[in-house]
Amino acid sequence: MILREWRGRVPHEKVDDYVQVLEETGLKEYAATPGHSGTWLLLDRDGEAAEITLLTLRTSRESIHAFAGEDISRAVYYPEDDDFLLEKPERLRHYEVLRQP
């Protein structure tokens, strides 16, 4: 199993709208890609901006390629993201899951 981690910062007043956009774009596409084993949508409201973290569990790196393309460390964005994100980090991280509940 591989855990894919993406983080983005959003103005506090746009959080609810951005979560709705995520549900309609990335989260929907994640779930439709073979090898998807779950997604956690996390929100940290502390600080000047809210931080959203998406943790996506995949059965293999091949499953990530099916969603993200050849360079799986490159973040995938949608046109709607420009209206919400304060910056768009280009890279994200992957973790090999050594133990799970």
Instruction: Briefly note the CATH topology name.
Output: Alpha-Beta Plaits
The ordered H/E elements are EHHEEHE
User: Helical residue percent?
Assistant: 10-25%
CATH architecture assignment = 2-Layer Sandwich
Q: Determine the number of helices (DSSP H or I, runs of at least 4 residues).
A: 3
Q: What's the main sheet like?
A: 4 strands, antiparallel
Q: Segments where pLDDT lies below 50 for 5+ residues?
A: none
How many beta strands in the DSSP annotation?
Answer: 4
Alpha-beta content class: alpha+beta
Report the span from N to C terminus: 13 Å
Number of domains: 1
Neighbour order of strands in the largest sheet: 2-3-1-4
Radius of gyration: 13 Å
Write the layout of secondary structure elements.
Elements: E1 2-10, H1 15-24, H2 26-32, E2 36-44, E3 50-58, H3 61-68, E4 93-96
Antiparallel strand pairs: 1-3, 1-4, 2-3
Main features:
4 strands; single chain; 101 residues; 25% helix; four-stranded antiparallel beta sheet; Alpha-Beta Plaits
Task: Summarize this structure briefly.
The chain is α+β, with helices and mostly antiparallel strands and 101 residues long. It is 25% helix and 31% strand.
Fold and architecture overview:
By secondary structure, this protein is of the alpha+beta class. The chain is 25% helix and 31% strand. The chain has a single domain (2-96), classed as 2-Layer Sandwich (Alpha-Beta Plaits), CATH 3.30.70. Helix 1 runs parallel beside helix 2 (26-32). The relative contact order is 0.30.
